[in-house]
Amino acid sequence: MKLYPKHIIDLQNSIAFLILFYIIVISPFFSCSSSVIKKETTQEYIFTAESNILAKSKERIDNTATYEVYFQLTDTTQCIEISVIAIDTYNKRVRCGYIFEAEVDTSRFPKKPVKPVYSEIAKNFDVNWRFQSNIVFCSDETDPLKRLNKGNYRLKITAFSDKMFTFTIQIKSSVPVAFKK
To answer: Global pTM?
Structure first.
């Protein structure tokens, strides 16, 4: 069989394609598979309280009874996972909305506010009231108000009713979480 220049070019293109395929697709598997990569270990922190014990928030969600739970991250972390479960007096799980907020560092403000200022970081519902049972929030290094630094945080929680509920807050974090009573 005689190879013509066209066949040689096709053969060279095929070899070039295979080499490029190996470099792009196969080699990252070898370069990224290292036993040195450290995986953050997380621990779950749980806080349970009845609505009649929790502080009522002046900032209501959907104009219904809203409660506040405060906690502290003892160090900076990359991500946390938050889940809030609301149980009514009949021991049934009900829909629950919550907003995750961080206390703003006002130490550099020329005029200090009387009460702490909180900035919304995330919530478990969207503008159409579609809910998520839990949220995973990761720090945004480009936005100083959306970083998970050591400090104080607040959850505003509602079950969309004035009845009594038991709220269970679960936070998974790679740094210790201290709930404040």
So the answer is: 0.74
